[in-house]
Every structure is written in C-alpha cells, then in structure tokens.
Amino acid sequence: MLSVRLIPLAPLLKANLKQSLQASSRLGPITFSRQFNISTKKRNSYIANNAGPATLAPMNDATKFDSTFLKQFKTSELVSFMLIGICTLNKPILNLCIKLFPYVPMPVIKALVYKIYCGGETIEEVKTTGERLTERGINNMMISLTIEACNGNDNIDPQYIVSETQKSVEEILIPHTLSIIENSGKSINSIPAGYVALKPTGFTKNAAAVLKNFDSPEYKDSFDELVANASAICKTIFDANKNLAKQYPERTAPFVVGVIDAEKYDLQPGVYELQRRLYKQFNPVNSPVSVVGTLQMYLSGSADLLTKEEQLAKDQNYRVGMKLVRGAYIHSEKDRANVIHKTKTDTDNNYNSGITYCIKSILDDQLNKSPIGHLVVASHNADSLKLATDLVNKSSPENSSRANVCLGQLLGMADSITYDLIKKDNVENVIKYVPWGPPLETKEYLLRRLEENGDAVKNDNGLPLVKAAFTTLMSRIFA
Ligand SMILES: Cc1cc2nc3c(=O)[nH]c(=O)nc-3n(C[C@H](O)[C@H](O)[C@H](O)COP(=O)(O)OP(=O)(O)OC[C@H]3O[C@@H](n4cnc5c(N)ncnc54)[C@H](O)[C@@H]3O)c2cc1C
C-alpha cells in the first residue's frame, strides 16, 4: 500500500491571490533587476525591444470581486464554492475547518469540494476533467499523479509511479491533445502542449537523501536509478513527439512535455543534475523540447542559474525548457535569509525579468534552434501573466513559436484570473495543473488547498465568494 504525502507543490501558493492582488495595486516598473545576471548588451537590447509602458496596467480591476467566472461551473460546484467561502469567512472559522478536516469522511469530501481541486482518481475521470476544462476554453492540462515522498517517506513504489505516469501520457495527454488539435478549429500552433508533472522524489526510495548527495559515491547507484526512472517517462514523451510530428509536420511546438518539479532548496542540486541529464537526452537542437525543468525565481541565485543553464545548453548542443515559478517553500526554508530574495518585490522583478528573457528567446526563433526552447509561466500573479501575454501578443500571430509559451495555474485556484485571460484577453495558451490519484493522498492535497485559501480570506474567498456563488445559484434557479 502506498503511503504517500501528497501534492508536490506542497506549501505552494502560500502567497497566493492576496499577494497577487496587493502586487497589482503597487505595480512597479518592470525592471531588469541586478539579480538577473544576463550580459549588459543583451539586457539593453531587451529594454530597447520591449520599450512598452514603464509600468503594467493591471489586468483587470483586481480589487473588485468579479463573479462572472462562476457561471461556468455546475450547480453542485457552486454549492462547493459556497462551502469554501463559508470555511474561509475568517481565520478562526478557517482554523477550525482545518482541524476538523482530517476527520471528515472521504465520501463527504468527494461530494462537497473534491471536484473543484482534483482531476479524479482514475484515468477515465481525468479525461472527463480535461473535457470540462475544454468547455471553459482551457485547451490543455498539466497532469500530476500526486504521489511523492519529499520528507523521506520511503514507502513509495517508484516502478508503480513510472508505469502509471507513462499510462497517463498515453491514455490521457496524447488523446486529449489530439482531440483539441482535430476539433477546436484553431491553428495547430496555437494549441498548448499537454504536460505531465514529474516529481523527482517519486523516482527512488529515500529520494531526499539521494538528491542531496547525488554526487557522493555512496548514492551514485540510487541517483542513477532515479534518473533512469525519470528517463523512462521522458522517453515515452520523446517518442510520442517524434511520431506525432510525422503526422502533423506543420506543428512547431511539442505535443506532450515532461516537467520536472522543483523541490526544497537542499534537494535542488540533485534536481538540477537530473534536469540536465534529461535535457541532454531528450532535447536535441532542431527539435521541439520534450523536457522542461523548473527554476524557482525567489532564489537569489536563480538569474545566474538561468544564464548557466542556457550556456550549458549552448556548449553541449542541447535545448532547455523552463517552467518558471516564484517558489513554494519560502516558509519552510531554513536558510531563507541567504538563499531567497530579501523582498517580494525583488522576487517579482526577478520573475518578470526571467519570463521576459525566456519569451523573447523563444519568439525570436522559429526553427527550434534557440537554447531556451519552451516556457511555462506557472503563476497566479495577474501582473506576471499580463506581462507574458503582452509579450506574446506583440509577436506576429503567424509566429509558430507562440505555442512554446504557456501560462499555467492550479485547478481550483485563481479561476477568475484564468477566466479573464481566456475571455477578456483572448489568451489561447492557458493550462490548468490537474492533480489526480488515490483518494487518501487527494485528501492531503485538499487540506493544503484549504490552508492556502486562508491567505486569501479577504479577497476572492470568504463572504464575497459566498455571496457571489449564492447569487449565481439563485439566478440560475429562478432564470
Ligand atoms: C502550475 C504550477 C506549477 C508549480 N510548480 C512548482 C514547483 O515545481 N516548485 C515550486 O517550488 N513551486 C511550484 N509552484 C508554486 C509557485 O512556486 C508559487 O508558490 C505560487 O505559484 C505562488 O506564486 P505566484 O507566482 O502565483 O505569485 P504571487 O502570489 O504573487 O507570489 C507569491 C510568491 O512570492 C514569493 N514571495 C512571497 N513573499 C516573499 C518575500 N517576502 N520575499 C521573497 N519572495 C517572496 C514566494 O515564492 C511566494 O510563493 C507552481 C505553481 C503553479 C501554478
């Protein structure tokens, strides 16, 4: 039996919407922060090429709760939103709910809130979730089998994780992506790829120690096993991309992509080495990128790291794909003062500089030659999403590299922002991160979502959400 701690994105999204909204109201210049250590020449050429407004206009009026997005949900889901709103009315109520949550039987949870945040327990259920997302204009997913062991849990079965993940690529992602390509009526290069999140701690026993000590002889075999397991999945993805490219030669972007998740700081050296070995194997020049790694831009060394990854790719003749996140482990990072940017603004500037740099590299090249070949802007921050959208929209609609940039948010989180991107800004390349897997683990995932919602009590949760869901429900009943 799998004993597992769920959600790779762990303390994730701690900062969430509340900070996003605060950030929107104090928008500063999109600067090329000194932390982002690209050459002065390149940096100046950026600024020249991106000479837009010095500040970004907010994507929408972030201080006002716009409930339009709720119309997309079923009646039962509106009831779930009301419940989430009640649980997040204020901190004491939320804390009580968090305490009681572990004792609530799974069938009750499944009936009440499960579908908002989770893609399902089985492959069939995840497929249905994908179809529902398509109805909302969300043209692909990043699926994640939520089994991991970053805190030293040794009861995982890496082989099971590998085979289930391969199965999910073949039975969910590929058919889903092809169905969108065939049925959406959109240009083939405007459809985002299907992504599968790969958690490095799921690929060997005792993974935390292995990743921390990947270069010590004692852990060599275990690290090689971890790399081999991740490679097996990436090979499935790489082969699928090769075969599908023959079927659809006009597509520039990959059809499916493996995404390596980032972990806590002390595990990252092993994760970076894993990413590099996978890039070398599966991201040759002149081909779309099949493997995307993750960089946490809250790390003060992340700009240098991005430069280093690009240089390594150039020197060794491969391509890199990047998922840029701000970073989920700020609250648990022991050495926070030394490894994480001093302020949220520094992180924001660094993040925005990073996505600008990657998007520009990608859009400037339509022949699959640039060292940075693919970007996932994984964020709920309305300003970063607006920046990415503006940069992509500045390029010609005919630019076939557009599908190499995509925006990702978690299922059930920042739904109003996702809605605005699609309906108001006509963004095509949006995906949702869809966790799926055994119900026991899903319960832990849901608990985390509840905890994270606490940070947003005053924004799009709490009373405004209760009122909005109730009004939408009533208008539906009495329409
Ligand atoms: C699709 C997807 C995949 C993800 N994958 C990963 C992953 O693999 N690994 C991972 O670690 N995270 C991952 N995350 C989570 C991500 O790192 C963020 O925690 C989360 O998205 C919140 O940041 P934001 O960009 O949405 O924006 P915001 O809500 O504007 O930013 C919040 C973030 O800012 C940073 N921050 C907050 N306060 C400060 C401060 N005082 N000083 C410096 N920095 C500060 C923190 O990183 C915090 O999480 C993922 C998120 C998504 C949507």
Automatic annotation (TrEMBL):
Q: What is its EC number?
A: 1.5.5.2
What GO molecular functions are on record for this protein? Answer: FAD binding; proline dehydrogenase activity
Catalytic activity reported: L-proline + a quinone = (S)-1-pyrroline-5-carboxylate + a quinol + H(+)
Record flagged with keyword Oxidoreductase? yes
Tell me where in this chain the Proline dehydrogenase domain is found: 129-457
User: Per the record, what is one GO cellular component?
Assistant: mitochondrion
**Record's InterPro entries?**
FAD-linked_oxidoreductase-like, Proline_DH_dom, Proline_oxidase
- Print the keywords alphabetically: FAD, Flavoprotein, Oxidoreductase, Proline metabolism
Presence of keyword Flavoprotein: yes
Q: Please give one Pfam family short name.
A: Pro_dh
Cofactor requirements of the protein: FAD
Protein origin, superkingdom? Eukaryota
User: Which biological process annotations from GO are given for this protein?
Assistant: L-proline catabolic process to L-glutamate
Family note: Belongs to the proline oxidase family.
| Role, per record | Converts proline to delta-1-pyrroline-5-carboxylate.
Q: What is this protein's record name?
A: Proline dehydrogenase
Provide the species name: Australozyma saopauloensis
